[in-house]
Amino acid sequence: MYMNGSGSYLDVLLSSESFSDLISRFYIISKISEFDNNLLNEIKESQKNIQKKKQSIELKQKELLSLKAELTVKQNELKKANIEKQSYYDSINEDLVNTEKILEKEVEESNRIKEEIRTVTEKNFSSDQDNSKKHSEDRIKQESRQESKQESRQEVKQKSKQESGKRAAILKTSDTGYSPVITSPFGMRFHPILKTYKMHTGIDYAAPNGTPIYAMSDGKVIVSRYSNSYGNYVVIDHGDGISTLYSHNSSNLVSVGESVKAGQAVAEMGETGYATGPHVHFEVRINGEPVNPEPYVIIGD
Fold first, then answer.
1. Same domain, 124 and 194
2. What are phi and psi of 289, to 5 degrees?
3. Number of domains forming the structure of the chain
4. Tens of pLDDT, residues 243-269
5. Is the full-model pTM beyond 0.85?
6. Which partner from 36, 172, 194, 232 sits 20 to 30 angstroms from 55, CA to CA?
7. Is 190 a member of any domain?
8. TM segments (predicted)?
9. Cβ of 245: how many Cβ atoms within 10 Å?
C-alpha cells in the first residue's frame, strides 16, 4: 500500500461513510503507514548490510586473488629451488666422481714413482754387484801386487760413502728473508682441494714463487717431469735405497740422468698441479715407500 503513495491514503479517508468510520480508517491507515515506514527502514538497513557484505566479499576475493598470486610465486620459487637442489646434488655427485678419479691418479702417480725408484735401485744394486764381482776377481788375480792400491781404493770408497751421506739444506732463509713455514706435515690430513681425508706423504713448506729449492744430498736425477697432481716435480736417487722428491715447482732446473751435488738448486718453488699456493712438497722415500721426511730436512741460513 505504501507504494501507491499519499493519494491512496486520502481516497480511503474521503470515502468514509461516517465520522466514526473516518476515525477508524485514519487509525488503520496510520498503523499501515507506520508498518510501511518500519518495513522501509528494515529494507534500507538490509540494503546497507548487503552492501557491506558485498564489499566484504569483494575484499575477501581480492585477498584470495592476492594469496593465489603469492601461492603461484611460492610454487615457482619451490620449483626453482628443487631444480637448483637437484643441480647441486648432481654437482656433488660429479665432484665425488672427479675426486675419486683425482685420488686414483695421485695413487697411480705415487706408485709409478715407487716403481721407477725401485727399478733404478735394483739396477744400481745389480751394477754394484757386477762391479764388486769383477773387482773381487781382479783382486784375487793381482792380490800380491796390489795390496797397497787396494787399501787406497778402500779409502777412496769410504770417503765417497761419507760424502754421499752428507746432507744440505733444501731451503735457505737467506732466499726468503724468513724461515719457511710448514703448511702441512707428514701424515693423514684433510685435503684442502679434494675435501677428503687422505695420507699426506711429505712435508709442505710455503715460500714465494721462484724460491730456490736445493738437493738434500748428492745423487742422480731419475725423474723430472709434470703431472696433474704433483705439477712439476723432481726425484733424486741418493743411493742406499734413499730418494727425495720435490714437487709443485714453477720450474725444474735439472734433467733425468743428471748428477747433482748436495745443496745444488734443482727447482724453483711454485704452485703447479694440485696446490692452493706456492710451496714445495718434499718427500723422502726408502726403497720407493714414503717415510716421514722431518728427520732429513735441513733449513739453512
1. no
2. -95, 130
3. 2
4. 999 999 999 999 999 999 999 999 999
5. no
6. 36
7. yes
8. none
9. 23
